[in-house]
Design goal:
Layout: H1 2-18, E1 32-33, H2 35-42, H3 46-55, E2 64-65, H4 66-94, H5 99-127, H6 138-156, H7 164-182
Antiparallel strand pairs: 1-2
Signal peptide: 1-26
Protein name: Pectinesterase inhibitor domain-containing protein
Keywords: Signal
Length: 189
């Protein structure tokens, strides 16, 4: 249910932003580029480039402000987090976890809550164009979100095997992608 709600709001925001005229930005003085240009500039590896192109698959106009791309990447990370959090909840609800496994997944639930709050904060800053006048370092906020997802990975690695590990790796990559795309905005380091 949470994943469906997150997906609905992501698609709603994307639909609203997609009604803007071609080559527009939601924020003033933000560079515009194509998805191809943005993904090439943001990604340092073929994996990140492919992930970026996939994340931007629903962006319809040929040229957009990088603020839109940053928002889409943040929302894709949030949707991925929601899917993993749902899987963690299902494992915890199953009742068949040994003590150590239960503790690890409880930690992951906590870390995913923090990561979700952090990325929701990033999305709010992007939607409100507040990154342009922000006192703190938005880049550090992105990096904090990556670290929160990585804490779950570190905990899960203590288990002999985990169905969450692969999901967490995807989430870590989505968080890193959001950060890399966010760095296209002026002032984000």
């Amino acid at each position: 249910m949470a994943a469906m709600t997150a997906a609905f709001f992501f698609l709603l925001q994307l639909a609203i932003i997609s009604t803007l005229p071609p080559s527009s930005t939601a924020c003033p003085d933000v560079p515009s580029m194509t998805v191809e240009q943005a993904c090439r500039k943001a990604a340092g590896t073929l994996l990140m480039y492919d992930l970026c192109k996939d994340a931007m698959r629903d962006v319809t106009y040929p040229t957009n402000g990088v603020d839109l791309y940053a928002l889409v990447a943040a929302k894709r990370a949030l949707a991925s987090y929601a899917d993993t959090a749902h899987a963690v909840d299902a494992l915890l609800a199953g009742g068949s976890l040994p003590g150590a496994g239960r503790e690890v997944y409880e930690l992951c639930k906590e870390f995913y809550g923090e990561a979700t709050d952090t990325m929701n904060g990033v999305a709010a800053v992007l939607v409100g164009c507040r990154f342009m006048v922000m006192e703190g370092d938005l880049g550090q906020v992105y990096r904090d979100g990556v670290a929160q997802v990585e804490r779950c990975r570190d905990a899960v690695r203590s288990l002999p095997a985990s169905p969450i590990y692969a999901r967490n790796l995807v989430d870590r990559n989505m968080a890193a992608l959001a950060y890399f795309v966010g760095r296209l905005l002026a002032g984000v380091q």
